[in-house]
Each structure stands twice: as C-alpha cells, then as structure tokens.
Amino acid sequence: MRLSMISLAAMALASAAPVLAQDTGVPSPVTVTGGVTLTTDYRFRGLTQSDEDPAVQGTVTVAHESGFYIGTFASTIDGSGDTPALTGYGDVEIDFYGGYSKTLDNGLGFDVGLLYYYYADAVDGLNTDFFEPYAAVTYAIGPVSTKLGAAYAWGGQDGLNFTSSNDDNIYGYFDAGLSIPSTPVTLKGHVGYTNGSLGLVNPLITDDEYWDWSVGAEAVGGPLKVGVSYVDTNVTEAGSFAQTLGRGSTVLGYVGFSF
Question: What values do phi and psi take at 234, rounded to 5?
Fold first, then answer.
C-alpha cells in the first residue's frame, strides 16, 4: 500500500514537471505541500500515542487543482508496552490518505476520503492496520473557521478485532478557529466523540465510548508555526486511571516547519 501511494505521488509530480519547467507564468495544476513538526506529546483523539513523550511528525500531500489529493502522515510512537493500546505496534505510525476536497466561493467546503493506518515495524503476526473513510463539511467567514466531520472504521478488519462482538468504530468531531486580527495568532477549539472498538479505553470492557476536547493557540510566521494546546478526555479518573495511562488532561506544545 505504501509503495502504491508513493508511485501515485511520483506520477503526479512527473506529469507536472513540464509545466514547472517552462517558466511561462502559468501555475502548475499540481501542488505539493508538507511539513515537519516536533510535539511534546502525540495525542490521537485525546489519547497519548507516545507515552506522553515527545514525537516527531511529518506529512506530505500532493493535490490537483480539480480537488483530488493523496498524501501520507508519519509519526514516532511508543509500542514498547508503556502505551498499553499500542503494545507491539513498533516505533512508527504511517498513515496513507486520498480524497477529494472543494471550497465554494461562499466559504462552504467539503472533504471526503479514505485513510489507512499502517504500523511498519509491528510485531510479526500482530494485527494492527485498518482503513477508515472520513467526511467533513467546513465553513469560513471572516476570521472564523469551522469544521464538522466524522470517520467510520467498519468492523471485521484485523486491526480492530479486539473483542468477539462488533468491532466497528465511529468518530465525530467539531473544530473551530478564530484568527486574531493584525496578529499571526489563531485560537482553536475541538470536541470529539468516539464510539466502538477504539473507545475501549475505560476499565469496564462494556464502556466503549468517550469524549475528548482541546483548546489552544497557534502562531504562524512564514513557514514556521508554534502552538500550545490543553487536551483532555472524560475517561474515568478513578484510581488515577486516565492520568496514569495518558488518557487524561495535559498541556502540550509544538513547533513546526511547513513548505
């Protein structure tokens, strides 16, 4: 799967090369964006993926002017056992994604696609990988931006086979941002809801749902960005359960470079 996505990206770039080389002032129909980020804790839907330690992350996206895109995201993780949900998953997560995104002149936009979670150095024989389709609607007006989205991973995939019952999972979320005028700062808020196999993070096996939320601020100057965020979940604090396993509140910071 990784090789096929890289091949597609290479083909797209190759097809754009003649346009880039002609220096005619005509923009290329293909754009390549990406970046590298250092974060003090990799939180996925409110849960640590790095044992609350720093993580290095990178992303590359190849997009066509029609709205179609493909890309990949990679991050260091902790599969040593100190992050229980990722025991045996190795030291790196690689996500491949592709989809279609469009923003209309009135500020309304939408994004649909498919994401594949891949753990390159997982323990042999351990089922870890799975697909997850996603969809979102966005709207921006002035300094305010919003996003309402959902992702659904269907049951029966090996990477979601945690119990003998239905192992599908749905995640719904709402994001909002407010750009502070005359500054490089954007205030951000997020709330998300997990229900299904990826929600089995409370002590009771029958409790397969939880909420996560965050508030933060990010400043962008040219290719550089820096941010801070407060992240929390409603996973039970009984016996310090959530905090001990990196499922409770934290304040994380990050710095990144984009192109």
Answer: -100, 20
In the numeric block, which tokens belong to residue 202?
């409370």
Asked if residue 23 lies in contact with residue 41, where contact means CB atoms within 8 angstroms, the answer is no
Of 125, 122, 199, 134, nearest in space to 168 by CA: 199
The amino acid at 239: G
Of 166, 163, 75, 171, nearest in space to 117 by CA: 75
DSSP assigned state of 233: E
Quick one: what percent of the chain has pLDDT higher than 90? 80
Q: Does the pLDDT value for residue 22 go beyond 90?
A: no
Cα 82 to Cα 50: distance, rounded to the nearest angstrom:
9
How far does CA 4 lie from the centroid of its chain?
A: 21
Token pair for 75: 């991050």
pTM of the model: 0.87
CA 116 from centre of chain: 11
Distance of alpha carbon 204 from alpha carbon 210, whole angstroms: 12
User: What's the length of the chain?
Assistant: 259
Reported confidence tier of residue 65, pLDDT bands at 50, 70, 90: very high
**How far is Cα 245 from Cα 239, in angstroms, rounded to an integer?**
11
pLDDT, tens digit, for every residue of 232-248? 999 998 878 899 899 99
| Residue the block writes with tokens 């609350």 | 52
**Which candidate, 16, 39, 11, 19, places its Cα nearest to that of 256?**
39
